[in-house]
Amino acid sequence: MMIKELLQVTVDNNASDLHILSGIAPTIRVDGALMPLNTAVLTPDVIQQLLKETLNSEELERLSVNKEIDFSLPFSDKARFRVNAYTQKGSYAVAFRRIPIEIPAIDALGLPKTLHAFTTLRQGLVLVTGPTGHGKSTTLAAMLNEINQNRPAHIVTIEDPIEFVFRPAKSIVSQREMHQDTLSWAIALRSVLREDPDVVLVGEMRDYETIAAALTVAETGHLVFATLHTNSAAQTVDRIVDVFPEEQQSQIRLQLSNVFEAVFSQRLIPAIPKGRVVASEMMLGTTAIKTAIREGKSHQIDSIIQTSTEAGMNTLETSLAQLVKGGRITLETAQSYSLRPDELTRLVRA
Question: What pLDDT, in 10s, does the model give residues 61-114?
Fold first, then answer.
């Protein structure tokens, strides 16, 4: 099959991903489960040909030199793809992530109403966290598009690669792709302050330089959205602080406490009878949370969240328990995604 046919099969099956690896048939992921297609097993030569259909000569050269490459691929009026081509066992492989053309609304995704409030903020740091493939990019796109639809702002995104493409409405939107529009995250974040932004999306706070720059952008009166691959709100705080040398950590805790607005941690959970639903943890920048961050008492954050439901916070276990009680997911599924299974069981029985 040609690459266009494989991508069309991915779209037709509403799959989230397509995997191309030597020695197996092309494989798609539907509702979180992998499904091999009923086609011939792929060989290194076939994959090489598929890559030639997909990449230009410059991108092929980068793949050859760097052994991996990220890029975005327009496909049809139904979808585009975020692509990672890489090497494994000496041959090429490709992972395609489907990105819908239409940006879904916050409510259509089944996300908490609190996320609407984040789109009205004028400054601060909002983090969306969770494992890879659990909808962080879609959630961020939904919030940014709500800003785009409702207020005049300059939104600047820094991505690797560009995923959702925004159509300017009340806002203007500048989307910068790594390697194509900028040479590095650090350079892009340094220059963003000269681009007159109101809202900045940092595709991923991945290291010391990007985290420091994102904090600075938020501290200078801008609204910053970013992602981190962490499992909980408390872990997110520790991850940010621990990136820095020990002698800088007290200053970073102070800086973070000053700009922090929220951590929204999400999972996509297999639903009954099919599909997936969102389970989430919410931590908001209340006085108690900011004090715990500033004083280095992140071990207290979970208990603060548990006792702050009236302020709009909740743990992942609370969200999972509500889904179990509502008949949306099974208890066994919930326990497999829970960080504290004993607490989940207590909440379900309560």
Answer: 999 999 999 999 999 888 899 999 999 999 999 999 999 899 999 999 999 999
Strand blocks (E) in 146-274: 154-159, 172-177, 199-202, 223-228, 260-270
Peptide bond into 273 cis (omega under 30): yes
Query: Which residues contact residue 338 at a Cβ distance below 8 angstroms, ignoring those fewer than 6 apart?
Result: 316, 317, 320, 344
H helices, E strands: number in the chain: 14, 13
Q: CB neighbours of 35 closer than 8 A, spacing ≥ 6?
A: 13, 15, 27, 28, 29
- CA gap 146, 173 in Å, rounded: 12
Find, among 227, 332, 235, the residue nearest to 293 by Cα.
Answer: 235
What pLDDT, in 10s, does the model give residues 237-274?
999 999 999 999 999 999 999 999 999 999 999 999 98
Whether 279 contacts 318, CB under 8 Å:
no
Domains of the chain: 3-100 (3.30.450.90), 107-314 (3.40.50.300)
